[in-house]
Amino acid sequence: MCTALALSTPDGQHLFGRTLDLEYNFGQSVVFIPRHFKYNDNGLSLQMKHAIVGMGMVYKGFPMLADAMNEHGLACAGLNFPKFGSYNKEESATKNNIEVFRFPMWILNNYSSVAEVRPILENTLLIDKEAFEGLVNPVMHWIITDKTGETIVVEPTVDSLTIHDNPYGVLTNAPNFDWHKTNLARYIHLSYDQISNFESSTLNLSAMSQGTGMLGLPGDFTSASRFVRATFLRDATVSNVPDFGIPQFFRILDGVSVPKGAMMTTAQKIDYTQYTSCMNLDTGDYYYKTYDGYGVHRIRLQNENLDSTELKSYPCKTEFIITEGNHND
C-alpha cells in the first residue's frame, strides 16, 4: 500500500515522491548508481548510461529500485497493483521484452523525459522472470514524471502496457487508474471554503467548527480513499497556497501516511509507512524520512562522482531528531 505524488511549485520546482507502506522492511537504502557502473554476475548483466539516485535494495550486488530519478530529471515509482495487473510469461518477437525487476532501471537508464519514453512503452512487454531464485515479482503499476511536469501511469495487462495521462499527479494502488479517476466524481460536493450555515423553511443550522467544506473527505487507508485524499490535498495546495515547496510536499504525504497499528494484514502483520520520499527533479536532490526518524535527510546527485564505476548504498537513517528550544544560539 503506497501513495505517490508529483507536484510543481510556484517557483518552477518539480517534486516527486511517495510513501511506501509495507508490513516488513525489505532492506531498503538510498542507492546511487553512477554512469559507468557495470554488473555481470549470477546470469544478469547491467551497463549504466545515466546516473541514478533513489530508494531500493542491492541484492547480491544488483540494484533494484522502488522509486528513483536519473540525472536528467526523469523519475519513476512502482506501487502495488494486486489482482488488476498481469505480466507475460513468453516474450514477443515484435516488442521490447523487459523483465519486470528491470523495468524502473531500464526506463531511467535509457531515457530522459516522459515524451521520449512514452512511445517506447507503447511497444513494450513486461516479462515475469525472477532476478534471483525466490524473488517473486509483485504485480505493480508505475507512475513516471519529469521536470516538465508531464506525468503518466503505466499499468501491465496481457500482451501490452496501458498508458494513462495523469493530470492529478497522484497514484495509489488497485483498482486501475481509470477507476480512480471516475471515483473522484463522487466528491464533487467538497469545497475548500467554509460552509457557515444552512437555512431552509424549517432549519437554521450554524457550523460548530472550521472544516465544514471538506466534510466527507475519506479518512481511511484504503487505496481508493488515499487517492481521493491525496488528490484534494494536492489540489488545495496548488489552488490556495501562494508559496510552497518541499515542506508542503511532505505535509501532503503525511496526510495519507499510515501509523503503526492502524492497518493490520490478514496475517496480523503491521502494515505502515516505512518511509516517505521527495525528489527535486531540477536539482537532483533526494529527500527522505523514515517512520522512526522524523528528521528529513538528503542525498545530492551533485555531491557524487557521476562518472564513477562504484555503486553506493546509504543506509536509511532512523534516529528521531530533537533540537533544544530553550537556548539563545
In summary, what is this structure?
The chain is α+β, with helices and mostly antiparallel strands and 329 residues long. It has a single domain (2-184, 219-315), classed as Penicillin V Acylase, Chain A (4-Layer Sandwich).
* SS strand fraction: 25-35%
Overall number of domains:
1
- The spatial strand order of the largest sheet comes to 13-12-11-8-7-6-3-20
Number of helices: 5
Give the termini separation: 42 Å
Poorly predicted runs: none
Radius of gyration over all CA atoms, rounded: 21 Å
Shape: globular
CATH A-level architecture: 4-Layer Sandwich
Arithmetic mean of pLDDT: 96
Largest sheet: 8 strands, antiparallel
For the secondary structure, the number of strands is 20
What order do the helices and strands come in, and which of them pair?
Layout: E1 2-8, E2 14-22, E3 29-33, E4 38-41, E5 44-47, E6 52-59, E7 62-70, E8 75-80, E9 96-99, H1 103-110, H2 114-121, E10 124-127, E11 140-145, E12 151-157, E13 160-165, E14 170-171, H3 177-183, E15 197-199, E16 204-206, H4 223-240, H5 246-254, E17 272-280, E18 285-290, E19 297-300, E20 312-315
Parallel strand pairs: 9-10
Antiparallel strand pairs: 1-2, 1-14, 2-17, 3-6, 3-20, 4-5, 6-7, 7-8, 8-11, 11-12, 12-13, 15-16, 17-18, 18-19
